[in-house]
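Inputs:
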Amino acid sequence: MNLTRLVYYSQHNPSMSLGVPDLIATCHRNNAALDVTGFLQFNGHSFLQVLEGGRAEVSSLYNRIVTDPRHLNVILIQCCDVRERMFPGWSMGLHEGMDEQTKKVFLRYFSGNTVNPETIGADSLLAALRDLSREMA
Amino acid sequence: MNLTRLVYYSQHNPSMSLGVPDLIATCHRNNAALDVTGFLQFNGHSFLQVLEGGRAEVSSLYNRIVTDPRHLNVILIQCCDVRERMFPGWSMGLHEGMDEQTKKVFLRYFSGNTVNPETIGADSLLAALRDLSREMA
Amino acid sequence: MNLTRLVYYSQHNPSMSLGVPDLIATCHRNNAALDVTGFLQFNGHSFLQVLEGGRAEVSSLYNRIVTDPRHLNVILIQCCDVRERMFPGWSMGLHEGMDEQTKKVFLRYFSGNTVNPETIGADSLLAALRDLSREMA
Amino acid sequence: MNLTRLVYYSQHNPSMSLGVPDLIATCHRNNAALDVTGFLQFNGHSFLQVLEGGRAEVSSLYNRIVTDPRHLNVILIQCCDVRERMFPGWSMGLHEGMDEQTKKVFLRYFSGNTVNPETIGADSLLAALRDLSREMA
Amino acid sequence: MNLTRLVYYSQHNPSMSLGVPDLIATCHRNNAALDVTGFLQFNGHSFLQVLEGGRAEVSSLYNRIVTDPRHLNVILIQCCDVRERMFPGWSMGLHEGMDEQTKKVFLRYFSGNTVNPETIGADSLLAALRDLSREMA
Amino acid sequence: MNLTRLVYYSQHNPSMSLGVPDLIATCHRNNAALDVTGFLQFNGHSFLQVLEGGRAEVSSLYNRIVTDPRHLNVILIQCCDVRERMFPGWSMGLHEGMDEQTKKVFLRYFSGNTVNPETIGADSLLAALRDLSREMA
Amino acid sequence: MNLTRLVYYSQHNPSMSLGVPDLIATCHRNNAALDVTGFLQFNGHSFLQVLEGGRAEVSSLYNRIVTDPRHLNVILIQCCDVRERMFPGWSMGLHEGMDEQTKKVFLRYFSGNTVNPETIGADSLLAALRDLSREMA
Amino acid sequence: MNLTRLVYYSQHNPSMSLGVPDLIATCHRNNAALDVTGFLQFNGHSFLQVLEGGRAEVSSLYNRIVTDPRHLNVILIQCCDVRERMFPGWSMGLHEGMDEQTKKVFLRYFSGNTVNPETIGADSLLAALRDLSREMA
Amino acid sequence: MNLTRLVYYSQHNPSMSLGVPDLIATCHRNNAALDVTGFLQFNGHSFLQVLEGGRAEVSSLYNRIVTDPRHLNVILIQCCDVRERMFPGWSMGLHEGMDEQTKKVFLRYFSGNTVNPETIGADSLLAALRDLSREMA
Amino acid sequence: MNLTRLVYYSQHNPSMSLGVPDLIATCHRNNAALDVTGFLQFNGHSFLQVLEGGRAEVSSLYNRIVTDPRHLNVILIQCCDVRERMFPGWSMGLHEGMDEQTKKVFLRYFSGNTVNPETIGADSLLAALRDLSREMA
């Protein structure tokens, strides 16, 4: 029953074509079956993704991403048990691109809008993604 | 005067017929006489029940359930003194089944809607049952 | 200048007639002169009373009750300095009887509506009396 | 893996003979097999027992006690998940009787040495039993 | 089982002779029978006394003092439930007089060694009495 | 510079031989080069491992384990930034087997010594592993 | 730049006439020049005054009051650095007399409306004066 | 990604002419390029400035100010990592002069409106500047 | 009974001769009679003094200093009720001069050893004086 | 009197020769005169330095470093008021190089021993420098 939240960063492998609509459709199908929810921000080059659900399901999805050739340089930012989901309404919310409004949200919590996955604070990142999801709702 | 809250799980004994309306009518009668309140979620196979009242009354009701052949595999999840009732208005609120809305409430706090009584967190369970009772009010 | 709050329980001496209106009129007169405020719940058999005011005045009123033949089995539940009065508007609020609504208020914080003065929690009792006073306001 | 602690009170059924050494031997055998630990205080008339272990195992032992004819008036005082065992070294520590030293331990936390199971504070009771176990170590 | 601590001040009635040894002997006899413990400081003119034990027993002892002609101007300083006794080893510790060492203890927590019972802080007073009891141990 | 701690569980693939000494020698070599420290408990069937170091290094080691055929059913238990290492002295501490003393350490924090990786509490697990490392020091 | 708040009590010297309007006009002139703000309650016999401003300015005003023959028995109740002014809008708010409404405000926090400057609590006094200033606003 | 906030004071070099509009235009251009935000209060003689952004960018801007001949007596008041920007909407808010309203804001938190940069509290200063920025919004 | 602590700064009036031994002898005599304790640091030019005792006594001593021609520029640093004396053993501890060791104590808490009475932090000052008193003990 | 602590990083300008003994001798001379204390770690390429003292003195020293051609890429890590010095005994402690023991200290708090000045945590850095200073004491 444990509820786990995992946040990771990865880069899109430029040598592989990426069909974002297909990707999200697959996410929705897989996540709904596993009762996993979350949010994905894709700026065209790199992914920031939150996964919420059972520990085994979340691990298993993350482990599959690690071996997926479309993802390079996968870096785990945080993985912790949580009391309540942050994105209960999204089987996988997608936010694409980096327009002015998105940049403004990132700048609330960071010094810029390019993310360094090795040092980014998980709490600040979750705050920014939550703000993005609210603007989309 | 101590006010105690007890939460348990049990499975419905499939070899015995269960008249839920009768069960609840009996609950109401017994609980009202003992000033016991609470909430019962029955998904068709297993029970999750909260009992609130005097320590002796709550113990005595729970002990009776333990010996009731309609309940199998009774597992005590929590029993603590509390400052104030969580379900003061219900001599025994009943929530039956597991429709989409109910599942949604469970998923707020858990990784799925099938409960493992040995590991479920009591606080998360109480939060989910309180959310259910509010939607019924 | 110390502000003190005292809570006690006592039983009405059944061998003495009790004129509640007279009692309250006396209370009002005495308390107003001493700048004492408070609340009295009388269920027909026993008293639960809160006194708020100067330490010497509150002690003196309590000590008089101890020697008053109309009160039997006087039990002191709590006496502490406080920062602010809980019943500033009542020279002595009176709540009589135990109708359904009153019982409901007691059941929010207790396992029943008969009070055991030796074990009742002072904070729960004050919460119940404050709820009663608000319903009367 | 959840670690649960349960505290209950019961009275010895005077119409049934009680072989305390046999009882404890059975306890040790059963508890060791289930990785349950705990402490039992028997003053000749009533039991105060702590059980620590897995939730299902602790529930199952408690449920068996409820139906054991040697126990009357079983009252559950507390049952909560805990972080660490309080009696890890005792498959079932036994403390019998109520000599002067035992009474002294009880008086540290209570107004007397006869326990009212309906109002006794679980934390104070655990403090007293832990003090007894330390004096026996 | 509730454990209560009560602190009061009173003046010795100068028109009545006071046999302190008798008083204490009576205290010891009464308190031991009721499992009440405590501490008494008598400076020759006024008493500061702590009573610890069951709520009914402590109330009853205090109520008897209120009607005892040897005590004048009895002022209740505090009465609260407590978790553990502060003077478990004393059926009634007696500290008499106000020598230099006693005055020094009082001056740690007060501006002087004459006590104003209407404003004295209960916590400071308990700290001073505990220090006195430790010096006597 | 971020310091990250990651805890995971995995099962040994029974169809592959495992040379624990080789494994550890490789660990030591790899970890020392990356300034990664940690602790590994292997009970003969499953691994519990803590990795502490830079976020990218820890991710990269974990991602390699995910794809290592000797590990099956890899489940991530926790991954968080930390202020200070818990195992600074171990390039990779190894604790093998499950003797009586080891079982005793596990029972301090769990209901048994078989770990359910989907529900085990990360803090309790770290407490148990730290206790094991101290006994080995 | 330190912001300091000082509260004192004094008695009006009955042998000197007191022109309250003149006093306040002087206050306003002096305080405005020194950026000092505050509140003054004068019940006809004694003053309760709060001064807020720079430490040197507040000290200097207080020291002048000490030597002013119109003030007798000046007692300093509190003087502390503060983060923000409590009476920023008043170069010197004046509240005169002790009508029913004023007495009611005092009784919220005190046992009566005659102030004992040696024991009055500074926080309660500031709460009462702030309530008075709000009623005047 | 670290977000840093720096607050400093400096004096305008009176021997150099200062074109405030030019200064601010340059600020806006530089800060926007570096994703630095902040607020500047200039009373005609001295500057109080907040810079928020990446640590290197903020340091670099501050270091440039240190060597800028238009600034004399540059004193660093605070520099800390922060969780969220205080002035996200201002590439550089400018507040000029010291009118009555501005003085009133300063007096909320200080004893006067002339700032001593060696002793001014950073938190009070930020509170005053935030209040000014809100009045300008 | 309130216990108050007052800290002030003043300058020695250079036009008046100061007999420090006489001053201290007077202090001892006056303070002992009033149960006032404290500590005095005199660096040859200015005084830093702590007074602890009853509110009226401390006020009265401070008010006398304000009018004493040997003291100039008296600035009140803090005056608050306290729970326990900091200098219970000193009717007035005297520390004179500013040797290397004294300077070292001041530098633990301040940027230098010359005190600015308008901005010095009362807590830091008390820490420094307490350290001095300990080195003298 | 404010006590300020500043931490910065800089790189040694490789085109300028650096006489560390001379540098430190100058530091000692300057700092002692200004009552500034601190600690300097120089690994041969970059500096990590802590300065503690008055705000103006610390600012002035830091501002001089910013313009000193021997320092490149000066990055301010933290500057805050503090209650007590961390390095009171060092007019400027010097720790040079990066031997095994030094690396071990850095690895307690960081993922490696090369510092990224833009992301390093100030608290972790101070903890590491304090550990180094203790090993040198």
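The first strand of chain H starts at residue 4 and ends at 12. Flag for discussion at group meeting.
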